[in-house]
Amino acid sequence: MTKQTLTIVQMLPDLNSGGVEKGTLEIAKAIIEAGHQSIVISSGGRLVKELEQDGSTHVTWNLGKKSPLTFLQARKLRRWLLENKIDIIHARSRLPAWVAWLAWRKIPEDKRPCFITTMHGLNSVSRYSKIMTYGERVIAVSNTVNEYLLKNYPDTAKMKIVTIARGIDLTEFPFLYQPDTKWLQEWHKDFPQTKNKWLLILPGRLTRLKGHHDFIDVIKKLKANNPTVHGLIVGGEDPKRLPYAQELYQCVKQEGLEDSITFTGFRSDMKQIYAISTAVLSLSTKPESFGRTAVEAISLGKAVIAYDHGGVGETLGNIYPSGLVPLKDIQAVATRCQQLFDDEITPPESQQNFYKKQTMLDKTIALYESCAAESQQ
Fold first, then answer.
1. Which pTM does this prediction carry?
2. DSSP string computed for 314-347
3. CA 95, CA 273: separation in Å to the nearest integer?
4. How many domains does the chain have?
5. pLDDT digits (tens, 9 = 90+) for 56-76
6. Which residues contact 195 (CB under 8 A, 6 or more apart)?
7. Both 20 and 157 in a single domain?
8. Which domain holds residue 190?
9. 271 and 365 assigned to the same domain
10. Cβ-contact 114, 139 below 8 angstroms
11. What is the CATH number of the domain that holds 293?
């Protein structure tokens, strides 16, 4: 029996950067490799070129603008879904999910695509956020998200929730990887202040929830006894939160840490930066749904020091429990870092087998195929 070729659409606000965007590209590539047709709807961004090179079609459509006018695009989307004979519509963000659902629910049942949503984050509990539970299948990206969903939206049918943990390609983050000489030379040319230092890294865009102020406090504590400590804040400014970025720059200056903390801006060479670090810190004050950066760093054999809550707490609990510290306990973070410097705790000692990207891809493609098969019965 010949396997049916499916046309699968993923929807999200844009394709610039971030975990959701990266996951969308990974799934799109897997769709193509499974013999199906992949389409992504977004307002565009720097990742579109890579998406199209991998064989997907990109449709530029701004369904992420928070305006009542966005909802009015549901009729246009409904026509488009029918004209293009879409089999699966997979919404990865709240506003695109609302537009997709408004379009989908008015399609005759015998012509409807399967409607899938992914709950990527622990969004504020509201009617607006509840849209992510409306899918015929709801993907939770961790057990933390699954529990959060059932606790806050108890009328959601348990049977339709599928937990598919995010994963990474272990070959992209090989254990004990070291960057080549050329990269190191360029890095030290751009950031000479980091040479021969204990490097502590806080990755992520400059948004308040990432815990930058806690990171600054940690560096300040460590610097008092260990002058070789240097902090790297790796992430671009958020255009919507520029005053916060200025607040961070000013804080570093006021604390006299300009020679001890470096803002690198957005970087596309995270593997190399992780590889030269002593530890990667995850200090988000709000619980996260998974924690991709922690898994990437641990795969490379790097220690991760993280607050024990949310998806990052779940992840480290499975693969590097030595890195967990109580939420908002700055002294505990500094102590754990010092223990690492003093060899009282060790970095990960092998590449873990948890959270493989291929497992995530296989489970997602299987879900698409089973959902499509059920809708055609």
1. 0.83
2. HHHHHH-GGGEE-TT-HHHHHHHHHHHHTTSS--
3. 34
4. 2
5. 999 999 887 777 778 788 999
6. 188
7. yes
8. 181-341
9. no
10. no
11. 3.40.50.2000
